[in-house]
Amino acid sequence: MSKSTAFFPSSFPQSRSLWPVFVGLAVLWLVSLPLACLPGPVPLSARGVFRALAAFAGLVPTPDDPALVQVVVRIRLARVCLAALCGGALAMAGAALQGVLRNPLADPFTLGISAGAACGASMAIALGGPLVAALGGAAGWMGLSHAGLVAPAALLGALAALGGALWLGRGDGAFSRESVILAGIAVAAFLGALVALVKALNEESVTSIVFWIMGSFQGRGWNSLPLLLATFVPGLLTMGMGWRALDVLALGDEQAAQTGLDVGRARLWLLAGASCMTAGCVAVAGVIGFVGLVVPHVLRMLLGWGHGPLLVGAFFGGGVLLVWADVLARCVLSGGQELPVGVVTALLGGPFFALLVRRR
């Protein structure tokens, strides 16, 4: 494999036991779940958190303060679990997109998915209230609410942006990585202009739109889990069945075609799987960047360039990164105020991205 055709440098480790790395990442992921419940506007003791979790599991009697169980399980643990799943999904999607597009600077937002989600959410924030009011009693019968429209609208916007990028990037019945990237940039530019137009025409919604676009898990709970899993599971199945195709695509399109791989179809399925995982995350938590860029590059130094081990490691590594980024977001300000977690990941990932561009 020559450096001119290989996407990943040959200096990465390729043949050694990876089990210690997997076990270390899995243990770190599991330990992070209860430990991340400790910090917050009102810090909790480790003894109180573990006792509340044990009581919820039925292992010990309910503590004297039952509200502690509600705070730990229904608020903090739910938020931590969502962050862990979203971080893993974004990191896996980033690893897949970098392999499919053979571009080390690719991340889950290359195809305009974040812009589509932002556009859908902005429309729901700005127009959802009048829509629910116009429906009147029918809205209550259908279970519609203004706040409840934002996440589904973001999901539909993300998937629509994906469809538009894939449609524009399809030429002569096949997909090329260059055309898909350019199509994603065009879709993102157009949808970004729509978001700016919505903000200009509806000034009352500007604050809500901007805060959502910056990404946050504030106010998210277990009720957001079905929406996330609805796209995470199909994307995970696609990754599980297509990781070998990612290894073949890393050789280049000509070499991949010589092995018998249908390059266009494989690229389509992998792009769709990675984008679905991203769409669910942005629908639940808003736009969170750089997780899919940073984590795969760090893990390649530990796991090598094989996509099977890399995808498994990315799930655990991305989850750990986003869990503790969210902890930092809710603890760095005083008075119960929170930073958007997208700001924290951008501060962490921005210098890393600049380093990649410099090395490129």
Furnish the topology, listing elements before pairings.
Blueprint: H1 19-35, H2 46-56, H3 66-101, H4 113-135, H5 137-142, H6 150-168, E1 170-171, E2 174-175, H7 177-201, H8 206-214, H9 225-249, H10 253-258, H11 263-285, H12 291-303, H13 307-331, H14 341-359
Antiparallel strand pairs: 1-2
Helix pairs in contact: 1-13, 2-3, 3-9, 3-11, 3-12, 3-13, 4-6, 4-7, 4-8, 4-11, 6-7, 6-11, 9-11, 12-13, 13-14
Q: What would your notes on this structure say?
A:
- By secondary structure, this protein is mainly α.
- The protein has one domain (37-359): Orthogonal Bundle (ABC transporter involved in vitamin B12 uptake, BtuC), CATH 1.10.3470.
- The chain has 14 helices and 2 strands.
- It has helices at 19-35, 46-56, 66-101, 113-135, 137-142, 150-168, 177-201, 206-214, 225-249, 253-258, 263-285, 291-303, 307-331, 341-359; strands spanning 170-171, 174-175.
- The protein has a two-stranded antiparallel ribbon.
- A hairpin with a 2-residue loop joins strand 1 and strand 2 (174-175).
- The longest helix has 36 residues, at 66-101.
- It is globular and about 70 Å long.
- The model is unreliable at 1-15 and 137-144 (pLDDT under 50).
For the terminal residues, how far apart are their CA atoms?
Answer: 20 Å
Q: Which architecture does the CATH hierarchy give at level 2?
A: Orthogonal Bundle
- The CATH topology corresponds to ABC transporter involved in vitamin B12 uptake, BtuC
Fourth-level CATH superfamily: ABC transporter involved in vitamin B12 uptake, BtuC
Uncertain segments are: 1-15, 137-144
Rounded radius of gyration (Å): 21 Å
Helix content: over 70%
Shape: globular
The percent range for strand residues is under 5%
What count of domains describes the coordinates?
Answer: 1
Give me the strand/helix succession.
HHHHHHEEHHHHHHHH
What topology, given as strand order, has the largest sheet? 1-2
For the record, what CATH class applies?
Mainly Alpha
User: In DSSP terms, counting alpha (H) and pi (I) runs of 4 or more, how many helices?
Assistant: 14
| SS elements, strand count | 2
Estimated structural class: mainly alpha
